[in-house]
Design brief:
420 residues; mainly alpha; two-stranded antiparallel sheet; 8 strands; 41% helix; elongated; DNA-binding
DNA sequence: TAGGCCATCTGGTCCT
DNA sequence: AGGACCAGATGGCCTA
Protein backbone atom coordinates (compact mmCIF):
# COMPACT_ATOMS: atom_id res chain seq x y z
CA UNK A 1 0.00 0.00 0.00
CA UNK A 2 1.41 3.31 -0.99
CA UNK A 3 1.73 6.26 1.27
CA UNK A 4 -0.93 8.07 -0.68
CA UNK A 5 -3.25 5.17 -0.27
CA UNK A 6 -2.53 5.01 3.41
CA UNK A 7 -3.26 8.68 3.87
CA UNK A 8 -6.36 8.35 1.77
CA UNK A 9 -7.64 5.50 3.85
CA UNK A 10 -6.84 7.27 7.06
CA UNK A 11 -8.67 10.35 5.99
CA UNK A 12 -11.53 8.33 4.66
CA UNK A 13 -11.80 6.56 7.95
CA UNK A 14 -11.82 9.91 9.70
CA UNK A 15 -14.58 11.16 7.44
CA UNK A 16 -16.58 8.03 7.98
CA UNK A 17 -16.17 8.39 11.66
CA UNK A 18 -14.96 4.87 11.97
CA UNK A 19 -11.99 4.01 14.10
CA UNK A 20 -11.35 7.63 14.76
CA UNK A 21 -10.20 8.73 18.11
CA UNK A 22 -11.69 12.01 19.26
CA UNK A 23 -9.19 14.74 19.08
CA UNK A 24 -7.19 13.12 16.40
CA UNK A 25 -5.93 15.69 13.98
CA UNK A 26 -5.05 15.26 10.37
CA UNK A 27 -1.39 15.64 11.23
CA UNK A 28 -1.69 12.83 13.75
CA UNK A 29 -3.28 10.64 11.16
CA UNK A 30 -0.54 11.41 8.78
CA UNK A 31 1.98 10.57 11.44
CA UNK A 32 0.15 7.34 12.03
CA UNK A 33 0.13 6.66 8.34
CA UNK A 34 3.85 7.20 8.20
CA UNK A 35 4.35 4.88 11.14
CA UNK A 36 2.15 2.33 9.48
CA UNK A 37 4.20 2.68 6.40
CA UNK A 38 7.26 1.90 8.45
CA UNK A 39 5.63 -1.35 9.40
CA UNK A 40 4.43 -1.78 5.89
CA UNK A 41 7.98 -1.87 4.70
CA UNK A 42 8.29 -5.18 6.50
CA UNK A 43 4.87 -6.66 6.02
CA UNK A 44 3.64 -9.36 8.32
CA UNK A 45 1.70 -11.11 5.61
CA UNK A 46 2.10 -11.95 2.03
CA UNK A 47 5.03 -13.16 0.04
CA UNK A 48 7.28 -10.36 1.25
CA UNK A 49 6.47 -10.86 4.87
CA UNK A 50 9.24 -11.81 7.25
CA UNK A 51 6.62 -14.01 8.89
CA UNK A 52 5.71 -15.74 5.74
CA UNK A 53 4.80 -19.37 6.04
CA UNK A 54 7.49 -21.86 6.50
CA UNK A 55 6.63 -23.89 3.50
CA UNK A 56 9.34 -22.25 1.54
CA UNK A 57 11.83 -22.93 4.27
CA UNK A 58 11.05 -26.50 5.04
CA UNK A 59 11.32 -29.78 3.37
CA UNK A 60 10.05 -33.19 4.20
CA UNK A 61 12.63 -35.87 3.99
CA UNK A 62 10.10 -38.59 4.49
CA UNK A 63 6.44 -38.40 5.03
CA UNK A 64 6.65 -39.55 8.59
CA UNK A 65 9.60 -37.48 9.62
CA UNK A 66 9.46 -34.03 10.99
CA UNK A 67 10.49 -31.21 8.82
CA UNK A 68 13.76 -29.45 9.12
CA UNK A 69 14.44 -25.97 7.97
CA UNK A 70 16.34 -25.90 4.74
CA UNK A 71 16.47 -22.20 4.49
CA UNK A 72 16.15 -19.26 6.71
CA UNK A 73 14.01 -16.22 6.50
CA UNK A 74 16.13 -13.28 5.72
CA UNK A 75 14.85 -11.36 8.67
CA UNK A 76 16.10 -14.00 11.05
CA UNK A 77 19.71 -13.32 10.32
CA UNK A 78 22.26 -16.10 10.46
CA UNK A 79 21.56 -19.22 8.57
CA UNK A 80 21.30 -22.33 10.69
CA UNK A 81 24.13 -24.74 10.52
CA UNK A 82 23.71 -28.43 9.94
CA UNK A 83 22.07 -30.18 12.79
CA UNK A 84 20.94 -27.10 14.51
CA UNK A 85 17.58 -27.64 15.99
CA UNK A 86 15.40 -24.67 15.39
CA UNK A 87 18.14 -22.36 16.45
CA UNK A 88 16.63 -19.78 14.22
CA UNK A 89 13.78 -19.64 16.64
CA UNK A 90 16.06 -18.35 19.30
CA UNK A 91 16.64 -14.73 20.00
CA UNK A 92 20.06 -13.20 20.42
CA UNK A 93 21.13 -13.01 24.02
CA UNK A 94 21.56 -9.30 23.95
CA UNK A 95 18.17 -8.65 22.52
CA UNK A 96 16.47 -8.10 25.84
CA UNK A 97 19.14 -5.75 27.08
CA UNK A 98 18.84 -3.80 23.89
CA UNK A 99 15.09 -3.70 24.34
CA UNK A 100 15.44 -2.35 27.84
CA UNK A 101 17.75 0.34 26.64
CA UNK A 102 15.34 1.20 23.89
CA UNK A 103 12.51 1.35 26.39
CA UNK A 104 14.43 3.79 28.53
CA UNK A 105 15.21 5.87 25.50
CA UNK A 106 11.58 5.86 24.50
CA UNK A 107 10.50 6.95 27.94
CA UNK A 108 12.94 9.83 27.83
CA UNK A 109 11.66 10.87 24.46
CA UNK A 110 8.09 10.70 25.65
CA UNK A 111 8.95 12.82 28.66
CA UNK A 112 10.62 15.34 26.41
CA UNK A 113 7.53 15.55 24.28
CA UNK A 114 5.34 16.19 27.28
CA UNK A 115 7.76 18.84 28.55
CA UNK A 116 7.82 20.64 25.29
CA UNK A 117 10.44 18.88 23.37
CA UNK A 118 14.17 18.68 23.65
CA UNK A 119 14.48 22.33 22.77
CA UNK A 120 12.79 23.20 25.98
CA UNK A 121 10.67 25.91 24.39
CA UNK A 122 7.95 25.07 26.85
CA UNK A 123 5.31 25.00 24.19
CA UNK A 124 2.98 22.05 24.54
CA UNK A 125 3.38 19.47 21.89
CA UNK A 126 0.47 17.95 20.06
CA UNK A 127 -1.86 15.92 22.15
CA UNK A 128 -4.29 13.20 21.36
CA UNK A 129 -3.44 9.95 19.76
CA UNK A 130 0.26 9.68 19.63
CA UNK A 131 1.49 6.64 17.92
CA UNK A 132 4.51 5.10 19.48
CA UNK A 133 7.39 4.92 17.18
CA UNK A 134 8.18 1.53 15.81
CA UNK A 135 11.63 1.12 17.15
CA UNK A 136 13.92 -1.70 16.35
CA UNK A 137 13.53 -3.01 19.87
CA UNK A 138 9.80 -3.05 19.57
CA UNK A 139 10.01 -4.76 16.26
CA UNK A 140 12.37 -7.30 17.75
CA UNK A 141 9.97 -7.83 20.60
CA UNK A 142 7.15 -8.50 18.19
CA UNK A 143 9.27 -10.98 16.37
CA UNK A 144 10.30 -12.61 19.61
CA UNK A 145 6.71 -13.13 20.63
CA UNK A 146 5.89 -14.45 17.22
CA UNK A 147 8.76 -16.89 17.31
CA UNK A 148 7.82 -18.11 20.75
CA UNK A 149 4.23 -18.52 19.65
CA UNK A 150 5.37 -20.45 16.62
CA UNK A 151 7.37 -22.77 18.81
CA UNK A 152 4.45 -23.35 21.10
CA UNK A 153 2.17 -23.97 18.21
CA UNK A 154 4.62 -26.38 16.68
CA UNK A 155 4.93 -28.29 19.93
CA UNK A 156 1.22 -28.32 20.32
CA UNK A 157 0.76 -29.84 16.92
CA UNK A 158 3.48 -32.36 17.65
CA UNK A 159 1.61 -33.40 20.76
CA UNK A 160 -1.52 -33.74 18.74
CA UNK A 161 0.29 -35.88 16.22
CA UNK A 162 1.71 -38.09 18.95
CA UNK A 163 -1.78 -38.59 20.26
CA UNK A 164 -2.91 -39.50 16.78
CA UNK A 165 -0.06 -41.98 16.49
CA UNK A 166 -1.18 -43.58 19.72
CA UNK A 167 -4.67 -43.73 18.35
CA UNK A 168 -3.40 -45.31 15.14
CA UNK A 169 -1.87 -48.07 17.19
CA UNK A 170 -5.11 -48.57 19.05
CA UNK A 171 -7.34 -48.98 16.04
CA UNK A 172 -7.50 -52.24 14.15
CA UNK A 173 -5.44 -51.32 11.18
CA UNK A 174 -1.85 -52.09 12.00
CA UNK A 175 -0.54 -51.48 8.56
CA UNK A 176 3.21 -51.49 8.36
CA UNK A 177 3.37 -49.85 4.99
CA UNK A 178 0.56 -47.39 4.85
CA UNK A 179 -0.12 -44.87 7.53
CA UNK A 180 -3.65 -43.83 8.16
CA UNK A 181 -4.30 -40.20 7.60
CA UNK A 182 -5.45 -38.10 10.50
CA UNK A 183 -9.03 -37.89 9.45
CA UNK A 184 -9.23 -41.56 8.63
CA UNK A 185 -7.68 -42.44 11.97
CA UNK A 186 -10.35 -40.50 13.76
CA UNK A 187 -13.08 -42.05 11.66
CA UNK A 188 -11.78 -45.53 12.17
CA UNK A 189 -11.44 -44.97 15.90
CA UNK A 190 -15.00 -43.78 16.03
CA UNK A 191 -16.15 -46.82 14.11
CA UNK A 192 -14.06 -49.10 16.26
CA UNK A 193 -15.58 -47.75 19.44
CA UNK A 194 -18.95 -48.13 17.91
CA UNK A 195 -18.35 -51.66 16.75
CA UNK A 196 -17.08 -52.73 20.13
CA UNK A 197 -19.97 -51.07 21.81
CA UNK A 198 -22.34 -52.90 19.59
CA UNK A 199 -20.71 -56.16 20.56
CA UNK A 200 -21.25 -55.35 24.19
CA UNK A 201 -24.75 -54.17 23.67
CA UNK A 202 -25.71 -57.15 21.61
CA UNK A 203 -24.42 -59.44 24.28
CA UNK A 204 -23.69 -62.11 21.78
CA UNK A 205 -21.09 -63.28 19.37
CA UNK A 206 -20.47 -60.65 16.74
CA UNK A 207 -20.85 -61.16 13.08
CA UNK A 208 -17.58 -60.59 11.27
CA UNK A 209 -19.10 -58.98 8.28
CA UNK A 210 -21.15 -56.58 10.30
CA UNK A 211 -18.16 -55.82 12.44
CA UNK A 212 -15.98 -54.99 9.49
CA UNK A 213 -18.74 -53.05 7.84
CA UNK A 214 -19.08 -50.98 10.96
CA UNK A 215 -15.35 -50.44 10.99
CA UNK A 216 -15.31 -49.30 7.41
CA UNK A 217 -18.33 -47.11 7.57
CA UNK A 218 -17.61 -43.61 6.38
CA UNK A 219 -14.03 -44.39 5.54
CA UNK A 220 -12.60 -43.60 2.17
CA UNK A 221 -12.36 -46.43 -0.25
CA UNK A 222 -8.59 -46.85 0.12
CA UNK A 223 -8.79 -46.84 3.89
CA UNK A 224 -11.67 -49.25 3.92
CA UNK A 225 -9.68 -51.51 1.67
CA UNK A 226 -6.75 -51.18 3.97
CA UNK A 227 -8.79 -52.14 6.98
CA UNK A 228 -10.25 -55.08 5.17
CA UNK A 229 -6.80 -55.95 4.01
CA UNK A 230 -5.55 -55.91 7.56
CA UNK A 231 -8.32 -58.28 8.42
CA UNK A 232 -7.48 -60.05 5.20
CA UNK A 233 -10.96 -61.20 4.58
CA UNK A 234 -11.29 -63.65 1.84
CA UNK A 235 -14.03 -65.91 0.71
CA UNK A 236 -12.67 -69.26 -0.16
CA UNK A 237 -14.94 -72.08 -1.11
CA UNK A 238 -14.41 -74.84 1.37
CA UNK A 239 -16.87 -77.56 0.98
CA UNK A 240 -20.46 -76.64 0.59
CA UNK A 241 -20.18 -73.29 2.30
CA UNK A 242 -17.83 -70.40 1.92
CA UNK A 243 -15.04 -70.05 4.35
CA UNK A 244 -14.00 -66.78 5.74
CA UNK A 245 -10.82 -66.16 7.56
CA UNK A 246 -9.23 -63.18 9.07
CA UNK A 247 -5.53 -62.90 9.39
CA UNK A 248 -2.91 -60.25 9.68
CA UNK A 249 -0.47 -59.57 6.94
CA UNK A 250 3.10 -59.19 7.81
CA UNK A 251 3.01 -61.66 10.63
CA UNK A 252 5.27 -64.63 10.71
CA UNK A 253 2.42 -67.04 10.77
CA UNK A 254 -1.13 -66.71 11.65
CA UNK A 255 -0.93 -68.89 14.68
CA UNK A 256 2.51 -68.25 16.02
CA UNK A 257 2.21 -64.55 16.44
CA UNK A 258 -0.53 -62.74 18.15
CA UNK A 259 -3.73 -63.11 16.37
CA UNK A 260 -6.56 -62.09 18.50
CA UNK A 261 -9.16 -63.86 16.58
CA UNK A 262 -9.84 -65.99 13.63
CA UNK A 263 -13.00 -66.13 11.74
CA UNK A 264 -14.05 -69.40 10.34
CA UNK A 265 -17.16 -70.83 9.04
CA UNK A 266 -16.45 -74.18 10.51
CA UNK A 267 -19.42 -75.23 12.51
CA UNK A 268 -18.68 -75.82 16.12
CA UNK A 269 -15.48 -73.86 16.34
CA UNK A 270 -14.87 -71.98 19.49
CA UNK A 271 -16.85 -68.87 20.12
CA UNK A 272 -15.74 -65.68 21.71
CA UNK A 273 -15.00 -67.31 24.96
CA UNK A 274 -11.89 -68.84 23.54
CA UNK A 275 -10.58 -65.72 21.95
CA UNK A 276 -7.20 -64.60 22.95
CA UNK A 277 -4.26 -62.38 22.91
CA UNK A 278 -0.91 -63.98 23.25
CA UNK A 279 1.08 -60.88 23.64
CA UNK A 280 4.09 -61.08 21.38
CA UNK A 281 3.73 -59.51 18.04
CA UNK A 282 7.09 -59.42 16.41
CA UNK A 283 6.26 -55.99 15.18
CA UNK A 284 7.36 -52.93 16.99
CA UNK A 285 4.77 -50.56 18.17
CA UNK A 286 6.38 -47.87 16.13
CA UNK A 287 5.41 -49.83 13.11
CA UNK A 288 1.87 -49.88 14.21
CA UNK A 289 1.76 -53.44 15.34
CA UNK A 290 2.73 -53.25 18.95
CA UNK A 291 -0.68 -53.91 20.30
CA UNK A 292 -3.05 -55.51 17.93
CA UNK A 293 -6.75 -55.30 18.17
CA UNK A 294 -6.53 -55.32 21.89
CA UNK A 295 -10.13 -55.27 22.68
CA UNK A 296 -12.01 -57.31 20.22
CA UNK A 297 -11.69 -60.60 21.96
CA UNK A 298 -12.08 -58.90 25.27
CA UNK A 299 -15.34 -57.48 24.19
CA UNK A 300 -16.40 -60.82 22.92
CA UNK A 301 -15.83 -62.25 26.33
CA UNK A 302 -17.53 -59.40 28.03
CA UNK A 303 -20.42 -59.51 25.70
CA UNK A 304 -20.89 -63.12 26.46
CA UNK A 305 -20.65 -62.51 30.15
CA UNK A 306 -22.60 -59.40 30.76
CA UNK A 307 -25.95 -58.26 29.67
CA UNK A 308 -26.18 -54.93 27.93
CA UNK A 309 -27.22 -52.17 30.21
CA UNK A 310 -29.93 -50.91 28.08
CA UNK A 311 -31.54 -51.64 24.83
CA UNK A 312 -30.47 -49.89 21.71
CA UNK A 313 -32.59 -47.00 20.69
CA UNK A 314 -33.16 -48.31 17.23
CA UNK A 315 -31.80 -51.32 15.49
CA UNK A 316 -31.63 -49.40 12.29
CA UNK A 317 -30.06 -46.29 13.61
CA UNK A 318 -27.60 -47.66 16.03
CA UNK A 319 -24.67 -47.23 13.79
CA UNK A 320 -22.58 -44.18 13.29
CA UNK A 321 -23.56 -41.85 10.59
CA UNK A 322 -21.61 -41.82 7.44
CA UNK A 323 -19.73 -38.78 8.44
CA UNK A 324 -19.90 -36.40 11.28
CA UNK A 325 -23.00 -37.73 12.90
CA UNK A 326 -23.72 -36.85 16.47
CA UNK A 327 -24.40 -40.38 17.58
CA UNK A 328 -22.52 -42.06 20.33
CA UNK A 329 -22.12 -45.74 20.93
CA UNK A 330 -25.04 -47.30 22.71
CA UNK A 331 -23.13 -48.23 25.77
CA UNK A 332 -23.14 -47.71 29.47
CA UNK A 333 -21.18 -50.34 31.13
CA UNK A 334 -20.77 -50.49 34.87
CA UNK A 335 -18.93 -47.24 35.08
CA UNK A 336 -16.15 -48.46 32.87
CA UNK A 337 -17.68 -46.63 30.06
CA UNK A 338 -20.19 -43.92 30.48
CA UNK A 339 -21.05 -42.95 27.00
CA UNK A 340 -24.12 -40.96 26.49
CA UNK A 341 -26.42 -42.00 23.78
CA UNK A 342 -27.76 -39.16 21.80
CA UNK A 343 -30.67 -39.68 19.61
CA UNK A 344 -30.25 -39.88 15.92
CA UNK A 345 -29.94 -36.58 14.23
CA UNK A 346 -32.29 -37.62 11.52
CA UNK A 347 -35.41 -39.73 11.37
CA UNK A 348 -34.65 -43.34 11.71
CA UNK A 349 -34.57 -45.59 8.76
CA UNK A 350 -34.98 -42.86 6.25
CA UNK A 351 -34.88 -43.50 2.59
CA UNK A 352 -32.48 -42.08 0.14
CA UNK A 353 -33.68 -40.11 -2.84
CA UNK A 354 -34.13 -43.12 -5.01
CA UNK A 355 -36.27 -44.77 -2.41
CA UNK A 356 -33.74 -47.22 -1.12
CA UNK A 357 -34.00 -47.54 2.57
CA UNK A 358 -30.79 -46.69 4.26
CA UNK A 359 -29.60 -49.49 6.38
CA UNK A 360 -27.53 -47.24 8.53
CA UNK A 361 -30.23 -44.86 9.42
CA UNK A 362 -28.71 -41.42 9.49
CA UNK A 363 -26.68 -41.18 6.37
CA UNK A 364 -26.76 -37.81 4.79
CA UNK A 365 -24.54 -38.55 1.87
CA UNK A 366 -25.71 -41.77 0.45
CA UNK A 367 -22.96 -42.01 -2.03
CA UNK A 368 -20.49 -42.07 0.77
CA UNK A 369 -22.66 -44.42 2.67
CA UNK A 370 -22.90 -46.91 -0.12
CA UNK A 371 -19.24 -46.62 -0.68
CA UNK A 372 -18.53 -47.22 2.94
CA UNK A 373 -21.09 -49.89 3.47
CA UNK A 374 -20.00 -51.74 0.44
CA UNK A 375 -16.39 -50.97 1.12
CA UNK A 376 -14.03 -52.98 3.05
CA UNK A 377 -12.25 -53.58 -0.14
CA UNK A 378 -12.69 -56.00 -2.88
CA UNK A 379 -12.07 -58.84 -0.53
CA UNK A 380 -14.95 -57.83 1.63
CA UNK A 381 -17.16 -57.43 -1.36
CA UNK A 382 -16.22 -60.85 -2.50
CA UNK A 383 -17.03 -62.08 0.92
CA UNK A 384 -20.34 -60.34 0.92
CA UNK A 385 -21.09 -61.53 -2.54
CA UNK A 386 -20.38 -65.08 -1.52
CA UNK A 387 -22.88 -65.01 1.23
CA UNK A 388 -23.47 -61.99 3.30
CA UNK A 389 -25.82 -63.78 5.60
CA UNK A 390 -23.75 -66.77 6.48
CA UNK A 391 -23.53 -66.87 10.24
CA UNK A 392 -19.78 -66.89 10.36
CA UNK A 393 -18.44 -68.43 13.43
CA UNK A 394 -15.76 -66.74 15.28
CA UNK A 395 -12.93 -68.73 16.60
CA UNK A 396 -10.90 -66.91 19.13
CA UNK A 397 -7.63 -67.88 20.59
CA UNK A 398 -7.08 -68.30 24.24
CA UNK A 399 -7.15 -65.09 26.04
CA UNK A 400 -3.94 -64.00 27.57
CA UNK A 401 -5.51 -61.24 29.56
CA UNK A 402 -8.83 -61.22 31.19
CA UNK A 403 -11.55 -59.45 29.41
CA UNK A 404 -11.53 -56.76 32.03
CA UNK A 405 -7.81 -56.24 31.58
CA UNK A 406 -8.09 -55.85 27.87
CA UNK A 407 -11.00 -53.54 28.19
CA UNK A 408 -8.98 -51.38 30.50
CA UNK A 409 -6.09 -51.43 28.05
CA UNK A 410 -8.29 -50.09 25.35
CA UNK A 411 -9.61 -47.44 27.63
CA UNK A 412 -6.13 -46.41 28.61
CA UNK A 413 -5.08 -46.18 25.02
CA UNK A 414 -7.89 -43.93 24.07
CA UNK A 415 -7.62 -41.79 27.14
CA UNK A 416 -3.88 -41.50 26.75
CA UNK A 417 -4.25 -40.67 23.11
CA UNK A 418 -6.69 -37.90 23.76
CA UNK A 419 -5.01 -36.52 26.82
CA UNK A 420 -1.62 -36.12 25.24
C1' DT B 1 0.08 -33.04 -13.34
C1' DA B 2 -3.75 -32.67 -10.15
C1' DG B 3 -5.22 -33.80 -5.80
C1' DG B 4 -4.49 -35.37 -1.08
C1' DC B 5 -2.00 -34.85 2.95
C1' DC B 6 1.01 -32.62 5.84
C1' DA B 7 3.92 -29.15 8.59
C1' DT B 8 4.45 -24.65 9.56
C1' DC B 9 3.53 -19.76 10.09
C1' DT B 10 0.30 -16.38 11.24
C1' DG B 11 -3.25 -13.43 13.32
C1' DG B 12 -7.50 -13.56 15.78
C1' DT B 13 -10.11 -14.96 19.80
C1' DC B 14 -10.81 -16.59 24.30
C1' DC B 15 -9.36 -17.60 28.84
C1' DT B 16 -6.58 -17.29 33.07
C1' DA C 1 -0.17 -9.93 29.37
C1' DG C 2 0.57 -14.26 27.92
C1' DG C 3 -0.76 -18.84 26.60
C1' DA C 4 -3.98 -22.11 24.34
C1' DC C 5 -6.68 -22.87 20.62
C1' DC C 6 -8.27 -22.23 16.06
C1' DA C 7 -8.58 -21.59 11.14
C1' DG C 8 -6.59 -19.67 6.92
C1' DA C 9 -2.66 -19.52 3.94
C1' DT C 10 1.28 -21.49 1.90
C1' DG C 11 4.41 -24.62 -0.03
C1' DG C 12 6.52 -29.36 -0.13
C1' DC C 13 6.02 -34.32 -0.79
C1' DC C 14 3.72 -38.27 -2.61
C1' DT C 15 0.70 -40.89 -5.50
C1' DA C 16 -2.58 -42.10 -9.06
Amino acid sequence: MSLQEMVFLSVSAALDGSSVTPGLKASDMLTSALAERTLESTPTRGPDSPFRPSGAHCKVSTKSQSREPVGRPEWLGHAPGPGRDRQHDRVPDGAREAEEEEEEQEQEEEQEEEDGGPEGDGLPRRRGLRRRRVTQARWDRVRLRRIEANTRERNRMHGLNHALDALRRAVPCPSRTQKLSKIETLRLARNYIWALSEVLSAGKRPDLLAFVQTLCRGLSQPTASLVAGCLQLSARPSGPEPRVEAAFPGRATFDTVYTPYRFRHDAGTGPCASGGHEGGSGVSSAEGGGRPFPAYSAFCGLAATYQPFYERASPECSSPTCDGGALSPPLHYHGIFSLKHEGPSEPEGHSDPDGTRCRFGTCRRFGTCRCAAASGGAALRRCAAADAHVPYDVQLREQFLTAQDQLNIVQDQFYTAFQQ
